[in-house]
Amino acid sequence: MAHPVENFLTGAHPPHSMGSGLIEIRGDELEGGGQILRSSVALSALLGKPIRITNIRGKRPSPGMRAQHVTAIRALARICGARAEGLELGSRVLEFHPGDITSDKFEFEVGTAGSISLVLQAILPVLSLAPSKITATIRGGTDVKWSPPIDYFKFVVLPILSRMGPRIDLRLIRRGHYPKGGGEVEISVEPAEELGPIMIKEFGELVEVRGLSHCTGLPRHVAERQAKAAEAALRRAIHSPISIDIEWSPHGSDAGLGPGSGITLYAKTSSGAILGADALGEKGKAAEEVGREAASKLLREISSGKPVDRHMADMIVTYMAIAKGRSEIGTSELTLHSLTNVRIAEAICGVRFEIRGDLGAPAELAVEGLALRRRTL
Q1: Active site residue: 97, 177, 311, 337, which one?
Q2: Taking a C-beta distance cutoff of 8 angstroms, is the pair 370, 321 a contact?
Q3: Is 337 a catalytic residue?
Q4: Dist. CA 294–CA 277, nearest whole Å
Q5: 206-303 is classed in which CATH architecture?
Q6: What global pTM score does this model have?
Q7: Does the domain formed by 4-8+15-200+307-368 have CATH 3.30.720.120?
Q8: What sections of 48-201 are H helices per DSSP?
């Protein structure tokens, strides 16, 4: 069967090794955003392969690195003793020459409401195979548009990744919303000797839906209305138990920063699958609309009959590529983000993914991983 990535890449230029030994990645292909940067540098650090990324975020209205991208790469550079050239706001070219991965306590500051979750996306693969335990404190935005909220990481991403071996503990110290940020998260990772394969192929039966609705610096009823609207929308479509917790902080963060709200929902099935969805509040958007939006997204994931939601699918590709043995997942939708991560993993790791399904539709992904082992001190 022809590789769907190849079919999709008509006229594109594949990553290749330069004469200097650098692997060159074009940042304006496929998804064309920050995903290319995060995935490429994480794999570069893990494999010890230098890379050069050009035209970073070339398909975005404001190309080049933003604050969260700079923070993510700076964090990886510190963790693996890398030399990074072009690491600055607005830069469209980056060279990353990784060194040895070290274990320590780190603190990273995004400096704005830039997404903490996107920084975690970049560093977690490396922390999962570090020489020993690493603890990192990251400050920035915990609930930011166009990125996974921190609750999605806590309730969906980390439980799934833990099945592959690393022990990951995430502590939310305080929330930070756009535009002021001020959020803070601490993550501790006990690495694995090597990542085990992941098999998530069957949906099974829906067991329950859980969630967390929060608001900060707003009346408590905002979080309650979000939860009530989400539950009502879910009950019209499913008959499984539903439980949505409320988190309320009346005065904003400890630093007195701006207000915000959001809701994260996740479904658990009899096969052990966890699928998530979320929505954020914003000025002029009714709390009920926020709740219904999150519920609609989750019902879409559930109705696909696949056990991995579209956002988790693109994140887990990197881990599948470096794990030991054959990993297989079924996802609710093959997205451009997923295809991007597949392409990056193939280019840097030399693995070959099997993809059954079309772009924008449910699909299955499989790969024989590298069986990469953690480096010892």
Answers
A1: 337
A2: yes
A3: yes
A4: 6
A5: 2-Layer Sandwich (3.30)
A6: 0.92
A7: no
A8: 67-80, 116-127, 150-152, 158-162
